[in-house]
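Regression check, nicotinamide-adenine-dinucleotide case 439:
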Amino acid sequence: MNITVAGTGYVGLVTGVCFAEAGYTVTCFDTDTEKINTLSAGISTIYEPGLEEMLVQNMDAKRLRFTVSPAEAYSGADFIFIAVGTPEREDGSANLDFVESVAREIAEHARGKTVVAVKSTVPVGTNRKLAGFFNPRSGISIVSNPEFLREGSGIADTFQAERIVIGTDDKAAGDKLAGIYRRFGVPILRTGLKSAEMIKYASNAFLAAKISLVNEIANFCEVTGADIEEVALGMGMDSRIGSQFLRAGIGYGGSCFPKDTKALVKLGEEWGCDFSILKSVIEVNSRQKQKLVNAAIGIAGSFKGKRAAVLGLSFKPFTDDIREAPALEVIRQLLDEGADISVYDPAAMGKMREIYGDQLYYAETPEEAVKGADFAFVLTEWPEITAFPLEKYRLFMRQPVLLDGRNCYSAEAAEKAGLTYVSIGRKAVLAEAVAAATK
Ligand SMILES: NC(=O)c1ccc[n+]([C@@H]2O[C@H](COP(=O)([O-])OP(=O)(O)OC[C@H]3O[C@@H](n4cnc5c(N)ncnc54)[C@H](O)[C@@H]3O)[C@@H](O)[C@H]2O)c1
Ligand SMILES: O=c1ccn([C@@H]2O[C@H](COP(=O)(O)OP(=O)(O)O[C@H]3O[C@H](CO)[C@@H](O)[C@H](O)[C@H]3O)[C@@H](O)[C@H]2O)c(=O)[nH]1
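Current build output:
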């Protein structure tokens, strides 16, 4: 059974390595020669816990290889998983150029009966359109197989997926794909092609909405004196609500929620449907990302001649991905305000350096980052950061103002440690500071 994965990004690489781990023979194909050379040397091109070890083991066992040749990748494949990017276009819609280019290459090179499974997140109707790239007599069939893994827990999410969605109008192709997933022993949901495409967008829209709702409630808690941590705990005990995705903070980032919510709004427009809730979800998230800098301005008046430390650059812990990370917005605002900035992250410094180069100081430890700073922003709840003791902020900072975008610390402990502490949804000081900044 030969499996090919097109695209070796966060989804493609995890998928390829996990299928090899499950015992299949896997070829991973990418157009990026540098990536393929690095992977062929047994080095993971992304930070994903446990991935590099699994990659090396499967390469050694001759179950996993990498190539830049579409002929080699597609001609002998029984299954081809498309896992290339579908990034946001300027108008918010999903850019399908990469997916279409893969479909064209498959049409050129695939021989015999091949099931093409589309893991990339694509708007409803795309898979049917892609089927039009293949000659009806070619034996190629298309299945929508959206991916639900989270970065930072990609391997566990693959082997212990809560569901595999297989959407197709071609029952035999769906049966074949279900067959290769059987080894994973996870629930499989069979649907029509369009429903599978919609399940993906609807799931991300729902999760993003949950976060924006809880953030809006957190903002109201600040005004009223309630504490969002207690409120979320109480809400989450209701099994109809569920305790996950109720963490208030600086807002959601990443390569999926921001782009997929916008793509769904755009898709709605194309079909004459107004996604008004989703538009508010996006708006609330965008305001949330500016909240802490506004609060800091409310406290400091100005950032001129001031030093800010940013702890946590990736959009969530256990990944090096900074796509749409709140840190990008905070750093942009701080640079506009004229602050000196030092940053720290256990995995994402390289990616940040690619964007900001010498405009930032890249510290090797949280301690080094906060030394001499007037403000410290905690933006990602990496264990290295949440374990950083409150006393050290007071000890090393010039003015100990801690702005905690992930509610990592106890407000009481922070105050006891002598810090001016601003968090999300817990202290009236933030609402007052924001009001002062926006007067
Ligand atoms: N990142 C996630 O956690 C996640 C989770 C679920 C679904 N998704 C969806 O999966 C898709 C991939 O996301 P990602 O984050 O892995 O993307 P990515 O940007 O990390 O990787 C995409 C890869 O595709 C390669 N590529 C581009 N054109 C190609 C071609 N013609 N042939 C072969 N390779 C090509 C690129 O070089 C790159 O390595 C997107 O649609 C995304 O929305 C992502
Ligand atoms: O209670 C919460 C939960 C998450 N977040 C933020 O939301 C973003 C996304 O987090 P998460 O969903 O854990 O990571 P992703 O890797 O972006 O995964 C999401 O996006 C993927 C791509 O579509 C989907 O496959 C996953 O199912 C979906 O969870 C991050 O910035 C988190 O900090 C919060 O602010 N509060």
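Comparison notes: Residues 121, 147-151, 204, 207, 211, 245-247, 249, 252-254, 256-257, 315-316 surround uridine-5'-diphosphate-glucose (ligand 2) (CB under 6 Å). The mean pLDDT is 96. No diff flagged against the previous build.
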